């Protein structure tokens, strides 16, 4: 159904349009990054406190930033998506959402992000253009470097850093380590996700680690990135002041176990479970980390 379509149910057309835009930007994938941002806010708030309004501001800023980034990515990649059998049915190349409508949504989400950043404080507002530069710039990196996955990780890792700054107004080792952990985690599973497009990427001149190194090389790189994630999360327990305790470390242990399982089910000879590794397991990684962090903060 086109976004310009109608529905026999009152309000059905508007609901369908919202759902269509949500599918275009994979709004449900906000779950990957948002819990880490809220965990950063929880750690930062231990000595400072945090209001419900500030938490809401962080959530709105994260949702706006990610929606804007995904919308921009879909716009920039529309011609590549149209040529790739896996992505040809995405909303813009399929004609379900017009280019103009995609731009309107992207610019509106950008405005929401900037306004939310302004509400969180002058430093957050001042840093918002830099965050947008990373979020929008990632969309071009696959055209010239196989390290595009790391650029994506850096862009999304700016969320936890922004949440920390929104609460504390400063920066240091704890948010830095969380940025490293999130950036390596995102880059690692983006390498896995890119495995399904490796042949198309090679033929189309699109850069990625799977296209450059093949399946085995990509799996090794992804595993090393997730090792960095594990080490950074452990280091964060000691770097935070006061230190994070048993509840946090228990959550990290579960996260590490999930990452190990993720790599165990994706093998060079069997890539059939890529979707399970990408969508299901990584969703649990972020939620478990958030819950463990909040429990540790509340009980100590």
The number of distinct structural domains comes to 1
Mean pLDDT metric: 89
**Would you tell me the structural class of the helices and strands?**
mainly alpha
Task: State the distance separating the first and last CA atoms.
Answer: 52 Å
DSSP summary: helix tally = 12
The CATH superfamily is identified as UbiA prenyltransferase
**Can you tell me the CATH topology?**
Tetracycline Repressor, domain 2
Strand content: under 5%
Number of strands: 0
Keyphrases for this structure?
76% helix; 0% strand; mainly alpha; 12 helices; Tetracycline Repressor, domain 2
Q: Please, could you describe this protein's structure?
A:
Helix content is 76%, strand content 0%. The protein is mostly helical. The chain has one domain: UbiA prenyltransferase (Tetracycline Repressor, domain 2), CATH 1.10.357.140. The longest helix has 31 residues, at 209-239. It is globular, with a radius of gyration of 19 Å. The N and C termini lie far apart (52 Å).
